[in-house]
Amino acid sequence: MIERLQTLDRRWIFLILFLAVAGSLLFPHTLHVAVEPYVQKAYDTLDLLKPGDKVLMAFDYGPSVAPEIHPAALAMLRHSFERGAKVVMYTLWNEGLPFLDASIQHVAVPMGKRENIDYVNLGFKWGGLQGSSVIEGMGSNLKAVFPVTHEGVPYDQVPILQGVKGYRDFKVLIAVSAGSPGVDEYVRYANARYSIPIVAAVTRVSAPKEFPYVNGKQIYGLCSGLVGSAEYEELIHHPGLGIAGLFALSVANLVVIAFIVFGNLIYFWGRKSKKG
Amino acid sequence: MQRQIPMFIVFVSGLTMIVDYFFPRVPYIQGAREIFLNWGRIALTFAMILGIMNLLMSNLRKVALRKAGWIYNVILLGSFALTFYFAVQYKMVPSGNTFITHKGTDMGSSGTMSFASKIFLDVYTPLSGTIFSLVAFFIASAAFRAFRAKNIEAILLLSSAIVVMLGSIPFGDSLFAWLGLEHILGHRNFSWLSTQIQQIPMSAAQRAINFGVAFGMVFMSIKILTGIDRSYFGGGGE
Amino acid sequence: MIKRGVFLFLFLSASPVFAGDEKPPMLAHPYVLVTMLLMIAILYTYLLTAKKGKLPFIRTLPGLKAIDEAIGRATELGKPVLYLSGLGDVDNIQTLAALSILSHVAKKAAEYDTPLIMPSMYSVTMVTAQEVIKEAHLRAGRPDTYNPDNVYYVSDEQFAFVAHTNGVMERMRPAANIYMGAYFGESLILAETGHATGAIQIAGTAETSQLPFFVVACDYCLIGEELYAASAYLSQDAKQMGSIKAQDVVRLIVLGFILVGSILETVNLPHYADFFQKVLGGG
Fold first, then answer.
1. Tens digit of pLDDT for each residue in A7-37?
2. Which of B97, B143, B144 sits opposite A101 (nearest CB)?
3. CA–CA separation, C264 vs C3, rounded Å?
């Protein structure tokens, strides 16, 4: 019996986790969200925006991590617009473009924001091999990196871009990032050299890597994973996919903890029976 | 000679980048840098073709030789041809916001979009999400196997993991209150404990590793530029 | 030769650049330049010392020692070795470190006549790896056993690549899986699948957020800078070993700065930290 439990087929674990997550998605509950200090810092930074301030926003992620950080992107964009800021959006990931478009359709359009005046979609710039040079190049010459908008409008004819040369013309950079090029490169090139405040949203898995940057004030605020997204939605009082997924996430965490406890019980039981 | 020429290219282009970085006003340096960058871009584009050719050839060969599992190679080749055809015919990323025209509320559920976009949203997106979601299942199985309270270090690791996990979900704080621990720690809870663990010991360890990584990276770069380490392109280092 | 040229251009073109309308200064990053020159000076001092025959001591890296054992086991079982160079392209230093280690692994595998399978996420990495493995076979005296089909391109997309690699692990059941280089969200998916197939697993990455996953699911793990030290350790080349010593000296100097800074900040003397903030803020 004990040997069988010790070498439990992992597919049982998968099945139980699947049932727990599926069940909590089918029978959702809204949970009270406690806000982490890092998310609060992100909110506070964007809350300082004044009408007319310009914000740069990068959608550097793909579909695999979208459930985690796309809600944060929507919430941060909404918050910026609510503060009256003008948002310049772009992506260095080809997979990021659909999410950039979706954010415009889900947030900017319903809020009555006007294209090229209140926001602009600069589209996709290949950030692969030369991601770092693109990010650094944007610092002093945004026009050279994005000569036309995604719609094909020349840079000089876009009202929101009038007088914009580089990072220094923006109040904040919102980096929604799932890897490289992403928030690390922005810290290294945009913040270190041009001192642009960065607010980031990253996956929960990669968040620990960014904590030293937040503590060192190289990133002003950080939303990590679905929890961070939910907390940001709570702060702007606009529940979305983040809060909706929180119950399932909580149940999944409890299942994992239960397995850890169960594993230890088996371990101690096994030791005891060996001694006995 | 076969080794000297690449090393010479490394040295000259590396030197160009370094001079441009530190002395941007040196005549012609920005132009030289641009030339190297453009060559890089062109080379990469051709390298993509190389990759595609390699993919097609190796899969076609497996199908032709009826190697084990050749049916998967057929599926791959079919999916490749289909996506390529529709992407070229309808343009995968047309200008403007026509890539996804949201008439509904959820991505890909409704609205007008090209077939290529449908492939991206209704096939690629869920497949990609599915593979990534495997992480959750593997975390569960790895945690079950690895988090055993075998010694003091393991107990510390185990307890911090549980605190951080409970601290990141709303249930954690309710549990904390239910257990009456708030009275002991003075209105603090799992969220607070979790934040402390992540901000202090974990952050310190991260920084230490990051410092080591940064030094390793700098010295590896210098070794490559000066030709001390050549093993990355075949021997040399040994 | 052309492949090498292509690769080198790509690697170099990824270097950060100075771009812009503003008239650039005569000397753009003075403090970085001084630090870099200092590092090069220290490096060359130790290179000369090492060349004179005074080899520095490098502690044993169990992960690297285990590579030979893993290849040996694969040979005994008649199964292949799976090698991944990470999810970075050749502009990523971690990929270069992984290719350096590949050089050693491929030579050992060639000596034992064990097939080495290497799916690749980028075409440039693929051609570079083909060169590395071909040369390794030559050095092992077995050019006839080199099979370019074992190093192939899969997909630039992260999870498409992972799905394929997991399939390879399940179908071919390699006896040893070696993961070196940059890994992201997929590290546990790869390592757990490998663990389930019963392979010996050796990993090495400088991506700190992925290290816990590799530590849990692999038998051996190179942590952070150990990945970069690997090529020196494996080659036992005097110049490379000297560079490790130089690296340690620079580390000690920086550690000294940090220590002084911590003490001064603790006693509330912020000028020192302000100076660094100013210097580093300006690049």
1. 788 899 999 999 999 999 999 888 888 888 8
2. B97
3. 52
**Token pair for C83:** 């090698």
Fold observed for domain A37-238? Rossmann fold (3.40.50)
Between CA C95 and CA C83 the distance in angstroms is 12
Compute the distance between CA of residue C81 and CA of residue C248 in angstroms, rounded to an integer.
Answer: 33
pLDDT digits (tens, 9 = 90+) for B57-66: 999 999 999 9
Q: Please list every residue in chain A whose beta carbon sits closer than 8 Å to the beta carbon of residue C210.
A: 205
Report the mean per-residue pLDDT for chain B: 80
Strands C116-120 and C81-86 turn out to be parallel
Tell me the domain boundaries of chain A: 2-28+250-275, 37-238
Q: pLDDT tens digit string along B185-234?
A: 766 788 888 888 988 898 888 888 988 998 888 888 888 888 787 776 66
Write down all domains in chain C, each with its CATH number in brackets. Answer: 62-235 (3.40.50), 237-277 (no CATH)
- Among all chains, which residue has been given the structure tokens 């090492």? C50
Domain ranges, ordered by start, for chain B: 1-65
Inter-chain residue contact A94 with B93, CB threshold 8 Å: yes
* Each residue's pLDDT tens digit, B135-171: 999 999 999 988 888 899 999 999 999 999 888 888 8
**Residue B205 parent element (H or E):** helix B203-225
Query: B with C: how many residue pairs have Cβ under 8 Å apart?
Result: 243
Which among B40, B135, B206 has the least Cβ separation from residue A209?
B206
- The two counts, helices (H) then strands (E), for chain B are 10, 0
* Inter-chain CB proximity A141 and C88 less than 8 Å: no
DSSP C186: T
Decide: helix, strand or coil at residue B174: helix
In the structure encoding, which two tokens stand for residue A131, read together?
């991601």
Q: How buried is C165 (Cβ within 10 angstroms: 0-12 exposed, 13-18 middle, 19+ buried)?
A: buried
Are the Cβ atoms of B37 and C17 closer than 8 angstroms? Answer: yes
- Contacting residues of B for A104, CB less than 8 Å apart: 97
Using CB atoms, which residue from B37, B126, B144 is nearest to A263? B144
Interchain contact, B142 vs C188, CB within 8 Å:
yes
End-to-end CA distance of chain A: 16
Break chain B down into helix, strand, coil percent, rounded to 5: 75, 0, 25
Structural tokens at position C12: 């170099």
Q: Nearest to residue C222, comparing CAs of C273, C180, C256? A: C180
ipTM (interface predicted TM)? 0.81
* Alpha carbon distance C45, C47 (integer Å): 5
pLDDT at B111: 43
Q: Are A260 and B162 within 8 A, CB to CB?
A: yes
Task: Mark the ranges of chain C whose per-residue pLDDT is less than 50.
Answer: 1-3, 5-21, 282-283
Q: State the nearest Cα–Cα gap between C5 and chain A, in angstroms.
A: 16
* Closest Cα in chain A to C192: A10
Query: For position A24, what pLDDT does the model report?
Result: 93
